[in-house]
Amino acid sequence: MTKVRILFYGDPHGQWRPLLAACKEERPDAVVILGDCDLAQPLSEAIAPLLEAEVPVHWIPGNHDSDRSNWFDHLFHGGVPGNLHGRTTEVAGTRIAGLGGTFRASVWHPHGSEDSRFHAPQEYLAHLREQRLLDGRERLAETVIFPSIYDDLANESAQVLVTHEAPSCHRHGFEELDLLAETMGAMLIVHGHHHEDYEARLPSGIQVIGLGRAQPRLIEITPAG
């Protein structure tokens, strides 16, 4: 079976030249961006050559994408509708799931407590409205991991799980991501956030690839038959 060639891009933090150069050289079947875009312009403008070439582009948000209103708007309303956070979709014939954002103690942090303060984004937003805290904190609803989003993904299946947070093989990682990938039947996790280029393998046999800041990585994947 023919392998598909997907180019994954580590946290851009405003740097797009490495991605554009890698795509020009590698000509991937699709692109997946791992969050923390820090966009000074709409995403559609930052990666215009890829869209003009009709390269499918997908992305997950990072924790910093809600830090500023313009960063948030340029990503979530930036003209590229391929948000994978909390979703599974077929990318170039490969089933990919996305879990963007990070764990936060104000919502759910597994290392701090097994209990979450808010199960779903709707509960969090209702709390902000009740406390009259709609001062930008509502943007966190799109860049935080909620138990409801995690649970919904656990009911799906995918070959690849793309995350911003790291699984347990990283010193700052989470076993919850190991379990999610196992439950979904994924054999590969690709993540950003920590700006470290490395490869590892979980005890379950799942391969893990961490990408550095603004680092492109072409991965060939055999679609499930």
UniProtKB/TrEMBL annotation:
It comes from the Bacteria. Residues 5-196 form the Calcineurin-like phosphoesterase domain. Signal peptide: none annotated. InterPro entries: Calcineurin-like_PHP, Metallo-depent_PP-like, Metallophosphoesterase_sf. Gene3D superfamilies: 3.60.21.10. This is Metallophosphoesterase. It comes from Aquibaculum arenosum. The lineage of its organism: Bacteria, Pseudomonadati, Pseudomonadota, Alphaproteobacteria, Rhodospirillales.
